[in-house]
Each structure stands twice: as structure tokens, then as C-alpha cells.
Design goal:
alpha/beta, BirA Bifunctional Protein, domain 2, 14 helices
Amino acid sequence: MNDFKEFNLLDVRKNSQIVNTLNKVYKLWGYEKIAPSMINNIDILKTSGVINQDELVTLVSNKSLCLRPEMTTSIVKLISTRLINKKRPIRLWNNGIIFEKKDGVKNSQRFNERIQSGIELIGYDTEFPEIEVINILFDSIDKLKLKEDCNLIFLVSSTTIMDLILNKYKSNNYEEIKKSMINLDQDNLNKLNILKKDKDILNELLYTRGNPNNVIDKLSNLYGNSKVLEDLRYLFNTIQPIANKYKISIQLDPTFQPHLNLYEGIVFQMVSVRNGEKSIIAKGGRYDELVRFFNPKENVPNGLGFSISIDNLRKIIKEDDNINKKILLLYRKKEDLPIAIDEQKKLHETGIITILEMNPCNDVSLSKKLMKENNCSEIKWIK
């Protein structure tokens, strides 16, 4: 059962506007369109470790198949098969619907549909492909023109930071500590059988987030200098001026980890804060292991990308005056039809939806009836 509410026509137009804007940005960066299958093989998702099977929306007719829970796995699989001979790096963009089991209820077929748009960058032989992907995300959000009171936070972490923090606990409560850190569960953390000194450090890290360089300095003091931290510092110092240009605040959170087991390395979310309400409008990260899983012989086995939530963006973009306008164009004399056709074309060029009534009209009451039948917001007469 699908609990997702039907869109009204205005929502459909807004979705189209958002997607068209994003597609233009992707194309300018050299990305090509791809349309992955809406049906996924459950065994492939399980083997690749992407998602818990209980969260999948399976097909009643074939329990080995499911509706796609995300786009990336299907795209990486396509790259390793049909696009195996395509020159790297491969730059792809996609739009479509993903399917999420409602509330993660086991054995339930109640699900939600989510519209998303995003990119994937595979096999880029450079040390920091993240810079390109993050730059495209910032550019995409900027082109959408969000409401003025919408504050953007770019929340970043890395699975390598969590590895650094948990390295000494691999033989002692590793999974429990990791779970407590990700869930910010201080109570459970304090119950674990580890040294008090270690508990104090971990408790402090639960609430350590903010300016990336300050957080990296703190981690360096606790765990020493490392390539992991220095690479992160270089990445943040590179993207910070870009973020400043777009008025995006960057925060580093060592405990932030993605829900999907898809990512390794850099993970991120773009969060909108408006009137005290937070909304995740984009998320992404790096998934080198997934690339290696589908093609162990890949010369440059790296991959990363992001997905943008069209549903959440729709609520925070500025209202386009023309998107709510739908004109009914009327004329009184038969010989004025060519003039009306020309006027309709002019209105279309400005982006205004315009319906031309092909029959002459001289009746005011009929004109109001036609406006209502065509769901128009106003009438324009040819004089």
C-alpha cells in the first residue's frame, strides 16, 4: 500500500521546475543522463551490504525483487556492465522515484515514494574528487533560489574519523561504542565496560561539532596528526571559500554516519533550517567499496555522488509568480484568431501557462465558466 499523497497540479509544476533547473546545472558540468531500473535484485543489495532487507519494498509476485530504495547501486552496476568500456571518469545524472518502507515495519508493504535528483562521479583519477561533487551541489542549490529566511548547513563527516576514534576498541565493545556514538546515546556509553578516561573522551566527542578546523585540531590533540585529518583539513580549506560565496555554513561532526551502509570516506548532508524546523534537502558521500564490489578490476575504484530531495526542496524554494498564473486567452471576433495565436506564443515565451479558447466569445458569463473549466487564474481578452 502506498501512503504517499497524490500531488496536486501545482506541486507537479514545481517539481518539474526544480528538476529542469537541476538538469541544466548537471549538463553544464559535463554530466550525462542515465535512467536506472526501478526494479532491483534483493540478493545484489544484500550481498553488496547497501541496505537492510527489512527496509525493502518487495514485489508480491516475486520476493527476490524489490522497488529501488536508492539510485546509486543500480547505476554503479550499470557502469560495471553496460558501460564497462566507457572512458573514465564517468559523470552521470539522474532523476526519479525511490521507495521506502513506511517506518521500516518488517513484513509490511506500506511504503512512501520520494522524488530525488542527483549525480554520480565514477573513476576520477584525482586525490580529491569530492571537491567537484560538493561544488556541483552548492551550485545546484544556489540556482534554485531558496526563500530568504532559509539557512543552509553543510554537515560533513567521514567514516575514517569514526575508524580513528574506535581503533583502540576493536576487541572491546566496538559495535556498542559505535552504536552509542552514532545515536548520541550517552546513557548506553556510560554503561559500557571501558576505562573512565576513555568514557570521558567519547562523551566529549558526542557533542563535538562545528567549525571544521577547530574540530580537526581537537581530534589531532586526542589522536595525533594523521593523513586522514590532514586530508580533511585540505578539503575543508578548499571548499570553505565556495561555501562562503553561497552563504552555506560548514560543520564537521565526527559522530555523523549515514543510514545506508553504502558509504566509506566522506559523507555529508545539506540541511535547511527555517523557522526552527530542520529539513534534509541533500545527502551523499563516497562509495569506493561498492565500485570494487561490482568491478574488482576497476583501474580507479572510486565513486561518489549526492541525491537531492525534490519533495523537501519544494517547500523552501521562492514562489515563482508565473507558476501560479494560468491565463485563459479569449477573443471576440473570428478574424482576431491569428492575433490571439500570436499573443499566446508571446505569453508562452515568458513562461506563463496560457490556454487559448479557439471559439470566439462575447459572453461574460460564458467566459467565467470557461475559466473555471480550464482551471485558469485569470482571463486576458484580445482587443
